[in-house]
Amino acid sequence: MKHHLECIGCGAHYSQSEILYACKSCGDLLEVRYESLRDSIDTSLWKARPISVWRYEELLPLDSASMKVSLGEGGTSLHRSIRLAESLGLKRLHVKNEGENPTGSFKDRGMTVGVSKAVEIGAEKVVCASTGNTSASLAAYAAKAGLECIVLIPSEKVALGKLAQAVIYGARVLQIEGSFDDALRAVVELAQSKTSFYLLNSINPYRLEGQKTLAYEVWDQLGGRVPDTIIVPVGNAGNISAIWKGFQELNQLGLISNLPKMIGIQAEGASPIAEAFRKGLSRIDPVTNPETVATAIRIGSPASWKKALRAVRGSKGLMETVTDEEILEAQKLLARLEGIFVEPASASSIAGLKKLVEVGAVSREEEVMCVATGHGLKDPEVAERACEKPITVGADQNSIKRALGLNG
Ligand code: F0G
Q1: Which burial class, exposed, middle or buried, applies to 58 when counting CB atoms under 10 A from its CB (0-12, 13-18, 19+)?
Q2: In 18-124, at which residue ranges do the beta strands (DSSP E only) sit?
């Protein structure tokens, strides 16, 4: 659909033909805005397509003739989580399992749109900085499109599964001596000096357009309504901003009359946005040495903090923190009560929900949806460490029965 880029700080407009990652006049973040949103949508077109990112292509910023680089992203299950709801003291709880995406995380929603955009503008190389999932996803979509892919990751603490994905898909992987925040700074500089490198971190507003489709899907999967409360793990803060944009657009289209409350969860050791929210500040104070078992969200200086604070405050939601211990406990709880295995960062939404129900900030009556952002097999080592070890026994019946505590 016809669109332009708009600065969220000073409101400057830019044409869609400009390749920009920040406002040229004030340096703030950009977002995609559609002209005449309401007039141009015919939802009967959507019904004829499967639930997926591209079901909503009229609300995505690509030329209709563009080649779509797709691996079958979106259309993830919305699980009614009855046993988990009961254990937390809630009536209605849903878990949106983004681990079902082609590379095992929600990043694929953004990358199908972002890499399609890269092809549309004729880019030859795509780049990103990543704590792991963004690099895995970009590498896969770049492979599909036949583009060169370069990823910068922090030298420590990238989960094994994610690194394996990036290398097998053929990306050039540079381990940066430093944190994710250092890697992001470096890649932004690189993309600014080499315009043939198309940057696909979440400061690229086109990528977030793909991620907003999670909101549309939830609306569709619930038969045309939305939950009261949405809980999202927050790292670099692109996803919560994108999901909020999706709900706002549904509202602008007249498809919903109410908007959900957005709740963002950060790990205690990497929580500058939650800290700013708690103190009522309008800016964040970056964390210099972020630390958490949830390596995906081990970020001290989130790029989209301003969009995230707007989402949370604009929706009358909140930000909360959880400890590593709470994250690991929630990971186990979700696996054992619902059969959904997520990586630690994803479990932070469940850990946050548990805490908020306990203190009464989320009530029993609210219909809640937690976003499970990435698959548990991304980071098997953490899960294995957190659980009881298997015991070794002889293959004979006696040994097995003894180990199981069975008599005779
Ligand atoms: N959950 C998972 C599994 C993630 O990989 C990320 C971010 C988040 C939550 C947070 O999302 O950054 O939009 O607030 N991972 C990025 C990466 C930073 O490089 O893979 P966010």
Answers
A1: middle
A2: 30-34, 78-80, 92-97
pLDDT digit string, tens, across residues 352-402: 999 999 999 999 999 999 999 999 999 999 999 999 999 999 999 999 999
211 near 307, Cβ under 8 Å? Answer: no
Which residues share a beta bridge with 3?
34
> Both tokens of residue 358?
């306990």
Show the low-confidence residues of the chain (pLDDT under 70): 40, 408
How far, in Å, CA of 130 to CA of 139, rounded? 11
> Nearest 5°: CA angle at 193, between 188 and 194?
95
How many percent of the chain have pLDDT more than 90? 92
Q: How far is the CA of 379 from the centre of ligand 1 (A)?
A: 14
Give how far Cα 133 sits from Cα of 37, 66, 373, Å: 32, 26, 10
Residue nearest to atom 19 of ligand 1 (CA): 130
The percent of residues above 70 in pLDDT, for the chain, comes to 99
As a whole number of angstroms, the distance between CA 23 and CA 138 comes to: 24
Q: Which residues line ligand 1 (CB under 6 A)?
A: 105, 130-134, 202, 233-239, 296-297, 343, 345-346, 373-374
CA distance 170 to 112: 17
Nearest atom within ligand 1 for CA of residue 136: 20
Give the single-character DSSP code of 375. Answer: B
Instruction: Pick the closest to residue 112 from 29, 20, 209, 30 (CA basis).
Output: 209
Determine the Cα–Cα distance for residues 85 and 83; give it in Å rounded to an integer. 5
CA of 148 to the centre of ligand 1 (A): 22
Residues with Cβ within 8 Å of 390's Cβ and at least 6 positions away in sequence, in order, are none
Give, in order, the Cα–Cα distances in Å from 378 to each of 60, 233, 249, 293: 29, 16, 32, 13
Nearest to 180 by CA among 156, 204, 207: 156
For residue 290 the two structure tokens come to: 């972020």
Contact 372, 353 (CB under 8 A): no
Please report, as a single letter, which amino acid is at residue 342. Answer: V
